[in-house]
Amino acid sequence: MTEVRLAEGDRLEWAIKTFKRKVQRSGILKDLRKKRFYLKPSTAKRLKAAAARRRRRADLRRRARYT
Question: In the structure, how many helices (H) and strands (E) does the chain have?
Answer without folding.
Answer: 3, 0
